[in-house]
Structures are given as structure tokens and as C-alpha cells.
Amino acid sequence: MNADELGIVREDESPEDALRRQLLDKDRENDRLRTQIDQLQAQLSQRPPLETILDLEKEYKSLEILLQGTQRENERCMADLERGKNREKMLERELEKLAGSNWQSSLEITSPAPTRSAFSTPFSTSLTSSAPQSTEAAQATLAHIEQVRLLILGMEQRLQSREEKLEKTVEAAHAQGARLEEMQVALSV
Known about the structure:
Blueprint: E1 3-4, E2 7-8, H1 15-46, H2 50-99, H3 103-106, H4 116-120, H5 135-188
Antiparallel strand pairs: 1-2
Helix pairs in contact: 2-5
């Protein structure tokens, strides 16, 4: 058995044949590596430039900060809305104490949402048997009930405008979230 610097030579093959065989193996390996390099270069050429990626990352971070701010604003608006609802319930309980359990019909407040007709109709009510009998006390009670009624209508208006503002904020947050997801998909490519 003969050996040379390229490896072990088989007994039946000459050193030239062994070198040819090794050369063919190396050529195949070289071709495989060149094909792999070409594929990697093609993938690299399809990627966006580094500046684009950095710009997208900056925009992603700014949208993330904006989304967090929007979420905090939504939480604050929801807390305001909840406080308004609690105050409305408290006022309804007070009205029930003052005007009786049918206070909505006696004060002509039919729906929780204010309407134009609720503002334009004159105030009229009939006193229940639990209401004071003296004229002055009745007038004072009616004036107080009218003030409470106007307060409730004003609160309902503010509540409705806050709800509309909150809905717009939520829509904007959803749009920003969708845009953020699109950017995440673009960055992952």
C-alpha cells in the first residue's frame, strides 16, 4: 500500500487516479458551496436595506409608545366613564328618595340618553302622596327636582360626549395596533 500527502492510495489505483478522484470530490464540494453562496446572496439581495430596517424599528418604537399612551388614555376615560355611571346611579337613588320610585315618569325623563324634546318640554309634575302638602314646600321641592333633572341631563350629555370620545380613541388605538402588527410582519421578513 502506497501513501502520499493527499491521503491513502488504494492498491489497485495509481497515485494519479487517486488525485483525480480527490480532485473530482473537491470540485463537487466547490460547486455545492458556490450554489449555496449564490442562494445566500439572492436571499440577501431580497432583504430591505439596513436604513429601511432601522427606520421601521424607530417607527415601531414610536408607535409602541403612542399605543401605550393611547391605552393609558383609554383606561383614564374608562375610569371617568365608570365614575360618571356611579354618580348617575347615586343621583337616581336620590331622585327615587325625593320623587318616588316612578321618578322618571313624574319628571318626564324617559330615556337615559338626552333628546331635544327633553330640553324643550316645560317641566310639569304631579305630587305624590309622600310629597309635602304646603305650597311653599311643594314649590321648593319642585325647584330642587328641576335642578336635579337639569343636572342629570347635563351629566348625560357629558357622559355621551365622553363615550363618543372614548370610542374614537379606541378606534384610533385599533388602527395603530393594526399598523404596528403590519410593521412587525414587515420586520420579520
